[in-house]
Amino acid sequence: MKYLKLFENYNYDDIVFVRYNMYDTSSTKRNLPYEGRQCWAISKDDLPKYLQGMKLANTNLDEIEIIKPTSDQKISALDFNKADSYVLGLSDDLPKLEKFDIDKHTLKYYKVSDKEKIDQLKYYDIVAPDYYPINPYQIFLV
Fold first, then answer.
1. Torsions phi, psi of 44, nearest 5?
2. Residue 125, phi then psi, degrees to nearest 5
3. Are 44 and 15 in contact (CB under 8 A)?
4. pTM for this one?
5. Which single residue of 10, 20, 42, 46 has CA 20 to 30 Å from 61?
6. pLDDT tens across 58-74, in order?
């Protein structure tokens, strides 16, 4: 992979950049002022966890795309929770793009306990996935 030369300390063989092409932002109050293709950085080992969550959300898996960055693309990251608050109008603080850091910006997952699964089914009538993502960072490929 020729783009690996841009990031000497990263092993991009261990992660994939995943985009859901039908993500709908029409209900947001404002847009982010950043250009680029938005996606998630996910460890190849964690990709089944991501897909399980998408299946439980009744996502059309045909709309999920694996993106391979090219050597001329810049990879940046944005704190998703802060970005979400900004576009929904809950916060006026525009989060700043950060230079991509594979350790910080790759989605991490925690295992959902049996008790949490039972509680979600009991109180919210939803089936919880086996894993939830934590530290969500939106990735921008420019």
1. -55, -35
2. 55, 40
3. yes
4. 0.81
5. 10
6. 888 899 999 988 888 99
